[in-house]
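tool_call: predict_structure(chain=1)
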Amino acid sequence: MKKISYLLAFSLATTMIYSCGSNNNKESENKEAQVANQKIVSLNGAITEIICNLGHEKELVGRDVTSTYPESMANSVKDLGHVRSLTIEPIVALNPTLIVASDKDINADLLGKIKESGIKYDLFEQKYSIEGTKALIKQVAQALGNNNYQSLWDKIDADIAKLQPISQKPKVLFIYARGAGTLMVAGKNTPMESIIQIAGGVNAVENLEDFKPLTPEALIQGDPDLILLFDSGLESLGGTEGLLKVPGIAQTKAGKNKAIISMEGGLLSGFGPRVGEAAVELNKLMIEIAK
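tool_result:
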């Protein structure tokens, strides 16, 4: 009888262990299947980049207009327009299971409609710094059930390590341009000020917050050593010669020396996984002009 009892107990324990193992495997498989079947709408360029870098590009079904990298976004994912003017209807039409956005640029009305829709969403805090970018990467990864974000952190650190010191930091003025009719300068507490500082320069605009209209007086007063624009912004003005025709530009140190550089907008201002690349490229351009 004792032998029979032992055999029954052993058989029962084995069955329970196998059953638990099977259940755990099924739960793990179910979670993986749920993640793989996600339909994501991303309303921020940096977040979109992170999603793609983490291997979830195929789960994206919709994006905002700033989500231009990687280049495959243009053809494979629905462009919903600018997040500040978006409405809920085109988002809902994509039947997403997850909507992700930055707290910096989503409009209040859209956020309210997303909450009302019942669709799962994550709103991430975005800080324009190296550590802020790392935190964003981690938050997005965790929202996707993906913990393989260390390599993205390592890439940023490796890029930042390539920065070269600049003995005399140049005063850099960033101008946002959409033709001569729309010209704004980046003041304090802007992503442009932050990337300029990371790259080894100082912001020429010290007495203004956020983005403000460009004036000849402000130009002459700031007297930048270097003027920085997006590639698209400089192109909209007709290149360097067109920029020099803007009142006040030619009277600055940068204008007199034609110390004008431009970079791809998403790279320069995105503060996503390529933030280190952006800082290094800007750093090199500043050093070359200073020679």
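agent: Residues 40-160 form a domain with the Rossmann fold fold (CATH 3.40.50.1980). Proceeding to next step.
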